């Protein structure tokens, strides 16, 4: 085998996570050739260590809780969860960390996979180092897309790096449920994993320097906080872990800023993400390795002065550009970007106007997220705080979801809450948050209303079926009032 070789494609994508795969798919669908470079598993973090395995860890307990919220169904499920079966189902969802299925998908989509670590080594040039040390330089005719994602951020807490802390990877791929798990971080990962490991039988202690789930409406975080406490999770909120150590018996000890100490068998760090840009050749372009990539509305990478690189040949999509660290938003960016690159190559005009084919307007106006805690949290668009900070004149409309007939029927003692944020000037919905059991599937109606900018007057004509939880819409509108 030669030590180095060179190939040319229309587009080269670095990173075969969900975002890279979708960019490559769209450019090939647009008539171009594409190579995708991957140094680990095709499918990325989401498939093997994030979305899929963590949701598989959470699902059985959620179904069990749903059954227990009804007297006869609850009576029928007398046993507890079998963690081994939960882990076996999780293994199926990760294909046992084997990416052959996803490689097959790339093949049938007409995308060339180049295995190895990619680094930008020149204009439109990516040099791939294979595991045997040989290199291939893949040259792009039109564009290079960075879709290298993110990794767990380890905060500079004294002693933390020396105790072999878990990140999302060890949590998602867990083989033995620890008796005691300490979690640092009360964001989405921390809250979901506190739910999962508590359900799976661990005694969980969570430490967060903020309230729980600071990214969503406070009432949603409060309901999750109450439920975790009721489930026996020990929560230390608005305090920091200042020191971590492991003793000779293997136990981990955390010292908190309020003087409390916590002992556990393992510690999971869930304090946000860091971009996978450290070893990507960014220095060749005058960019700083290890930084998030700043992009313009075309997703073109910007230099320190906010200017796209010469000829705009370099793009970044997904986690690495920090716009929305969510698989579905990364894939949304990928569809717009892939189509834009293909259109540019054909000499077609782009439509980058708000909601245009090549624009990523929803990243700013309609970011959707479901947090799979118990209760679930589903949110789209702006929170009250976000809308006020954006200088918008808003109305906040709240409703007790438990008072909706469909919810009362869904589960005994249903507890939940919904909020809609209305833009007073345009009289359209700009934000929606729901917290409660099984609210995930209620989200898309709100997303459609926000993206469609449906006037509230017209929403009165979207008649929710009785008795479903979707009647929350009627109740929100009635609470808001029709004669304003
Ligand atoms: C615990 C957890 C749970 C999550 N759950 C959800 C969820 O339920 N829903 C949701 O929407 N989002 C969820 N997310 C977020 C989601 O995982 C990310 O938004 C998503 O994975 C981003 O996709 P990506 O393609 O940008 O990056 P990644 O999935 O990180 O993929 C990037 C790929 O690039 C490769 N790569 C990196 N550098 C190079 C290089 N130099 N050369 C070659 N290859 C390289 C990597 O190996 C990787 O395969 C979760 C995140 C975590 C941590
Ligand atoms: N269901 C989903 O959609 C889902 C699930 C998991 C993760 N994700 C995505 O993955 C990304 C990463 O999630 P995450 O939970 O790691 O990050 P995050 O940004 O959601 O939360 C990090 C939390 O850690 C806290 N923190 C930071 N430093 C700390 C310290 N030194 N001590 C104690 N607490 C500290 C922060 O205050 C914050 O509450 C998020 O953007 C999220 O959207 C999505």
TrEMBL record:
Keyword Flavoprotein: yes
PANTHER family: DIHYDROLIPOYL DEHYDROGENASE, MITOCHONDRIAL, DISULFIDE OXIDOREDUCTASE
UniProt remark on cofactor binding: Binds 1 FAD per subunit.
Record's keyword annotation contains Flavoprotein: yes
The enzyme's E.C. designation: 1.8.1.4
Entry binding sites for FAD: 55, 118, 148-150, 319
Source organism of the structure: Kribbella shirazensis
SS bonds (residue pairs): 46-51
Protein name: Dihydrolipoamide dehydrogenase
């Amino acid at each position: 085998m030669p030590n180095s070789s060179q190939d040319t494609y229309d587009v080269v994508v670095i990173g075969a996570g969900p975002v890279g795969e979708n960019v490559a798919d769209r450019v090939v669908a647009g008539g171009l050739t594409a190579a995708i470079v991957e140094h680990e598993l095709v499918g990325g973090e989401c498939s093997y260590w994030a979305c899929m395995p963590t949701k598989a860890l959470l699902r059985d307990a959620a179904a069990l809780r749903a059954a227990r919220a009804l007297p006869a169904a609850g009576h029928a499920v007398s046993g507890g969860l079998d963690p081994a079966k939960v882990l076996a189902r999780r293994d199926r969802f990760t294909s046992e960390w084997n990416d052959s299925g996803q490689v097959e998908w790339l093949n049938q989509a007409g995308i060339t996979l180049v295995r190895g670590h990619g680094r930008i080594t020149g204009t439109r040039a990516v040099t791939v180092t294979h595991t045997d040390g040989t290199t291939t330089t893949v040259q792009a005719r039109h564009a290079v897309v960075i879709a290298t994602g993110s990794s767990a951020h380890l905060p500079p807490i004294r002693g933390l790096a020396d105790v072999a802390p878990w990140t999302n990877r060890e949590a998602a791929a867990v083989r033995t449920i620890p008796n005691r798990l300490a979690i640092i971080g009360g964001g989405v990962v921390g809250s979901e994993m506190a739910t999962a490991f508590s359900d799976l039988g661990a005694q969980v202690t969570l430490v967060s320097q903020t309230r729980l789930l600071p990214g969503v409406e406070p009432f949603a975080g409060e309901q999750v906080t109450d439920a975790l406490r009721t489930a026996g999770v020990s929560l230390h909120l608005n305090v920091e872990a200042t020191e971590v150590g492991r003793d000779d018996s293997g136990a981990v000890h955390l010292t908190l800023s309020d003087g409390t100490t916590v002992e556990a068998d393992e510690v999971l760090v869930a304090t946000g993400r860091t971009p996978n840009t450290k070893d990507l050749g960014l220095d060749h372009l005058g960019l700083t390795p290890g930084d998030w990539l700043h992009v313009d509305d075309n997703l073109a990478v910007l230099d320190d002065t906010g200017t796209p690189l010469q000829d705009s040949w370099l793009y970044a999509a997904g986690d690495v550009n920090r716009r929305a660290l969510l698989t579905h938003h990364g894939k949304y960016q990928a569809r717009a970007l892939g189509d834009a690159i293909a259109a540019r190559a054909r000499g077609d005009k782009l439509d980058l106007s708000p909601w245009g084919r090549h624009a990523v307007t929803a990243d700013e106006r309609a970011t959707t997220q479901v947090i799979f805690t118990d209760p679930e949290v589903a949110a789209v668009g702006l929170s009250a705080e976000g809308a006020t900070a954006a200088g918008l004149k808003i109305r906040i409309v709240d409703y007790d979801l438990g008072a909706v007939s469909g919810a009362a029927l869904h589960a005994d003692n249903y507890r939940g809450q919904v909020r809609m944020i209305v833009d007073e000037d345009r009289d359209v919905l700009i934000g929606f948050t729901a917290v409660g059991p099984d609210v995930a599937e209620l989200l898309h109606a709100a997303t459609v209303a926000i993206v469609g900018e449906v006037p509230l007057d017209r929403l009165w004509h979207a008649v929710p079926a009785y008795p479903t939880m979707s009647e929350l819409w009627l109740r929100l509108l009635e609470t808001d009032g029709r004669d304003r």
